[in-house]
């Protein structure tokens, strides 16, 4: 089970944030194109950054806590999912706070 540690944390993050979509009706997932245009460029930058750090020997991953799926260059699937899940959760949280704090029209 330890090999699912990273993915389990990511699933927990999603579980903790996804309820904001239907309960507060923040509309993040409904505007999926906008979400992709926000998340994908950041994902690309950080994937490239991780690949460079792995190649230079500055960064590595604990294989015992990973799913075992590794892309060329040594980047695990779990890390790629991190670059997707964490920003989506952050955007959901941000939009939820914006919605709650939005002042009603006067």
UniProtKB/TrEMBL annotation:
Pfam hit, one: Lycopene_cyc
Keyword Protein transport: no
Residues of the Lycopene cyclase domain: 5-95
Membrane-spanning residues: 6-24, 36-60, 80-97
Subcellular location: Membrane
Membrane topology summary: Multi-pass membrane protein
Alphabetic keyword roster: Carotenoid biosynthesis, Isomerase, Membrane, Transmembrane, Transmembrane helix
Primary localization class, coarse: membrane
Pathway where this protein functions: Carotenoid biosynthesis
Designated name of the protein: Lycopene cyclase domain-containing protein
């Amino acid at each position: 089970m330890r090999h699912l540690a990273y993915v389990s944390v990511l699933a927990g993050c999603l579980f903790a944030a996804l309820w904001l979509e239907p309960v507060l009706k923040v509309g993040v997932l409904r505007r999926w194109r906008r979400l992709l245009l926000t998340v994908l460029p950041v994902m690309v930058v950080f994937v490239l950054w991780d690949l460079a750090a792995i190649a230079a020997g500055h960064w590595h991953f604990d294989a015992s806590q990973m799913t075992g799926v590794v892309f060329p260059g040594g980047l695990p699937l779990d890390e790629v999912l991190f670059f997707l899940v964490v920003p989506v959760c952050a955007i959901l949280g941000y939009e939820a706070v914006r919605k709650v704090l939005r002042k009603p029209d006067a």
